[in-house]
Specification:
Length: 220
């Protein structure tokens, strides 16, 4: 079983059993796995393990397949619970990071920006080929002197959701970025998202008790 589905299976099966009973839940899970595999074949895996961002695409496939298995009656609250259950261990690991102590460390933030710039060169090389329509990224285009910033000029999750009819679910997936930020005591300043009709997705991570965070309003 694909690792994303394996991680999400307990939470998804619990919801399926509660709604449909054991036997039907098992049948619906088989259908969910089949749908996931079909999208993987038809839409691609964006390079799989060689692309560090491809896991977001796998999560998108899994969530949308689960949405169908639940007869499209999944609520935002149920989605949040599923993410919380599935990512508890990950949240615990990144919880050792305290962005309030790090975001003004210019040397460290430059290293983070450099790491992503190296990744973008690799993504640019393989986009349209082995990595399909993987994200187009600009690193710190606004020249922030604190924190970590990048802008996504394309999003394969958006393209998939638009093509397959899951635009109602897409904003929930985008909102998980805020949950990840909170886990590492960070605050995500983001006033544009492609899923809400903007031309890009902005990301600027600062400490969650920082003046920048306290002064912000309207982040998505």
């Amino acid at each position: 079983m694909e690792k994303t589905l394996k991680r999400l299976q307990p939470t998804m099966m619990k919801a399926l059993r509660e709604r449909y009973g054991e036997a039907e839940a098992n049948d619906r899970w088989k259908g969910l796995e089949s749908q996931f595999s079909r999208w993987l074949r038809e839409e691609g895996d964006l390079g799989g393990r060689k692309n560090m961002m491809s896991s977001s695409m796998m999560l998108c496939y899994a969530v949308c397949a689960f949405y169908e298995a639940m007869d499209r009656e999944l609520t935002h609250e149920q989605f949040d619970m599923m993410v919380e259950d599935a990512m508890t261990a990950s949240f615990r690991r990144i919880g050792i990071i305290n962005m309030n102590r790090l975001y003004r460390n210019r040397t460290l933030m430059k290293l983070c920006h450099s790491f992503v710039r190296r990744y973008t060169k690799k993504a640019d090389k393989y986009r349209g080929n082995k990595w399909g329509d993987t994200w187009k990224i600009r690193v710190n285009p606004n020249g922030h002197t604190v924190g970590f910033a990048m802008t996504l000029d394309s999003c394969p999750l958006y393209e998939f959701a638009k093509k397959r009819g899951y635009m109602d679910v897409l904003p929930w997936m985008c909102a998980t970025d805020q949950r990840v930020a909170r886990a590492m005591h960070a605050y995500l300043i983001r006033h544009k998202t492609i899923s809400s009709g903007d031309d890009c997705c902005e990301y600027w991570y600062v400490g969650d008790t920082s003046p920048e965070a306290l002064a912000d309003s309207g982040s998505k």
